[in-house]
Amino acid sequence: ELQFQLGQTHYYIGSLYFKEGPAAEAQEPMGRYLESALKLLELEPENPKSVLEASYALISQVGLRIRSRGGVDTDTVEKAERAVNLMKQARMDHPADVEIEGNYSTTLAWLADVYNRSCDPIRALNVRKHALDLAEEASREAPMNLELKEVLAQRKTGVWRYHVNLGQLNDAEKQLEDAISLYSELANLDPSDQEHHADVRYLTKRK
User: Which long-range contacts (CB under 8 A, 24 or more apart) does 193-199 make?
Assistant: First the structure.
């Protein structure tokens, strides 16, 4: 438990630096978060919390690299792939947990972005489609879960972008319409929700 709490402390410090200051300042605490999470996994490899935490820590490194506009190297690819494998393990261990299924979808989306930045757009699209399939399944299993509905909208938007980049405009149009519908549904639930209203406006302009 102490090892877990230590990792969480590093994570929150890193997140604060990333949101409020230069992304470079987040490197050290996020690196320590990863070290702590991998140590926890080494100590408790069968503990689902350890498996999930290691996956989160690895993909946080990937996200930090991408959002810092750093190039994607072999280490970044390996981290993303390991994060996906750990999340896949967690899903196999807990097949009824829709939250894990949603997180698995998100981790796959990051992996797709890594492949895309590695100049492998077809592989990236296939991984994005797999992420979308998982998000659709999770949302079907928990239709009242708004967080999963938002994840589904994000996955639809991601696949739309990839189809557009590849010139597959007919396929892109269907995903765009679905994404607008989902974001509109979320926005209508709360008229004060400026973020989802902005999503609807942005995507509608792309039709």
Answer: 196/150, 199/153
For the stretch 107-117, pLDDT in tens is 999 999 999 99
Contacts of 51 (CB under 8 A, 6+ apart): 41, 45, 86, 89, 90, 93
Q: How many angstroms separate the CA atoms of 34 and 14, rounded?
A: 11
Task: Name the residue type at position 184.
Answer: S
Mark out the alpha helices in 68-97 (DSSP H runs): 74-93
Q: DSSP letter for 124, please.
A: H
Which residue, 104, 6, 125, 121, is CA-closest to 55? 104
> Which has the closest alpha carbon to 107: 130, 123, 126, 125?
130
Tell me which amino acid residue 127 is.
V
**Which pLDDT score is estimated for 3?**
65
Cα 155 from Cα 90, distance rounded (Å): 20
* Measured distance CA(37)–CA(39) in Å, rounded: 5
pLDDT of residue 207: 86
Amino acid at 181: S
**In this structure, which long-range contacts are made by residues 171-174, counting pairs with CB atoms below 8 Å and at least 24 apart in sequence?**
173/207
- Which of 190, 187, 130, 180 is closest to 154 using CA atoms? 180
- Would you call 45 helix, strand, or coil by DSSP? coil
What is this structure's pTM?
Answer: 0.88
d(CA 168, CA 158): 14
